[in-house]
Amino acid sequence: MAYVTDDKENYVKVVTAVSSNGTQYLKTEADSSEKNNLLSLPECK
Questions:
Q1: pLDDT tens-place string over residues 1-45
Q2: Residue in 36, 37, 2, 6 with CA at minimum distance from that of residue 16
Q3: 3-state DSSP assignment of residue 20
């Protein structure tokens, strides 16, 4: 299982999805947060 955490140690599961044209991508499962969990992560260094 893969997941992301925020600064408060909340976590949400990361899953793969497939767009209508067949492209695979990562997304997070729905949670109570309105913000995009993946896009709100700090950039990797």
A1: 888 887 788 888 888 999 999 999 888 887 777 666 677 777 777
A2: 2
A3: coil
